[in-house]
Design goal:
The protein is mainly alpha-helical. Helices cover 80% and strands 0% of the residues.
Amino acid sequence: MWTRWISLILILFASGSIFADRQKKSVETVRELSEEKRLEFDYSFMEGVKCKILGNFQEALGWFDNCLKLLPSSPVVKYEVAALLLAAKDYNGALELTREAVAGNPENVWYRILLANVLQEKSMIEEACEVYADIIAKYPDREEFYLLEAGLYASVEKWQKAIDVCDKYEEHYGITEPVSIEKIKLYTKLGDVKGASNELMKLIRKFPDRSDYLNLLAELYFNYNQDKKGLQILDRLLKAEPDNGFVHFYLADYYLSKKRTDEADAHIRSALTSDKVEGGYKVQYILRLILNADTVSMPESRLDDYMALLMEKYSDDLSIRALHSDFLKKDGKLEESKKELEYILSKEKNNYLIWEELLLLCNELQDTAGMYAFSLEAMTYFPDQPLPYALAGLKFMMDDDFERALPFFEKGVVLADENPALKAQFYSYLGDCHYRSGRVEKAFGMFDEVLKINPNDALVLNNYAYYLALRKENLSRAEQMISQAVKLESDNAVYLDTYAWVLYVRGNYSQAKFYMKLAIEKAKEESGVYLDHYGDILYRNGEKAEAAEMWKKAAELGIEDKEMSEILEKKLKTGVLSE
């Protein structure tokens, strides 16, 4: 509040001072100067003011300096020069000239305002306050001066003096909400609960229909460990307004803070069914309970009950339906959660966050048809959002239809330009699509783009290294990349398998055996591919019988890749490594 008034007074100062002081100036010059000198003084002064208005401060100072040569005692010129020095942050020079201006014309309020501003800049706060006190004595109807003085006292933690100024304000203007609220803050700074509560009582008496003041009074008592008084206030409120949901919420918070969840529960239920609280506020309250479930010790069953209450009362409120979707998802009811989101979008298409939540749910449910259809529809409403393009493209990647996936990823990488992480993900998708389509060099170019953005993208490091190993190209780089991926995720069986295979291709069979064995140990389930790789590595290490045993187990588990499966069958028949 204080800053607003300071800004206002500076505006008044800038806009009103010239006119007021020109009148004084003319009187001074008439009395003390000859006609010729007076004309020169008037011309110099007006040129100085004009230059100041145009922002030519140095030129303005030159004109004002000429005025002082003609009339060294002129308060108005000293005032103008002091204002320029203040703007230039020459506070000492400004203070000296402003004091002289005030001494030369004590009745001019603008000189005193400037003096107060200079004193404030020099951190001479109490003296600045005394200046405002003098101004108030002369102009008791100017409320901004009271507020400025009180604000300055508060800025140096002179809380009681600030209160005294506010009291003077109230003597003149009566009880007003802004000043009363400031006084309450000042009393709390002093730790004076009685003083703060008295101020609140004044507001309560003046505005008996404002229950929020009673809430503030209760909060004040709670903050100072006077719970009994606070509860009495809130009980008084509920007797007058039994369905005041805000008071019920406040009491619920109080009992939750005391771990008295049964009492809190009763008030929460009353608040959720109150017609005096809008649905949006209730949603925010329940969300807060969810986010702080551990600290408030609220059982999930009760949260579900609250959600049921809201759904019963606000079944047409889309914000409630969105919250219900979150609850269903939390309980693992993904299909039901998805249906809620579909309902919301049937009523309101322009909420992107709902589209995003629906698309991610489709992905989680592996509903690729729904994911694709909703992605296309989302694009019509939000053509600049990259996620729908990513998920539409993923649908075709899952179907091994890489050529149809490419346009979506190419559009997405452009839209994700300001999101480096997402841009890298699109490059990764593009790399996989190009590789699977036989455009190897283009694919590697995409992977290079990913690693420019994020050199520690473990998945791309792994895939890139594996593709190089399969092609027996740039194997030193492949080993460097997969080594980095394993450092980032040392328990990842996929990365350990790739590391073993790169070492194998490079002819480092003993190390390859170590990492392949580790990959099998870390794998969450047995893998035919891993056992096939392990068999090849054992064969190269001279352990041919053990290799044949691994190939046999790999065949029993099965390998989806047709080419690998055919090679495995050949190895089993001949007992000889075939690559």
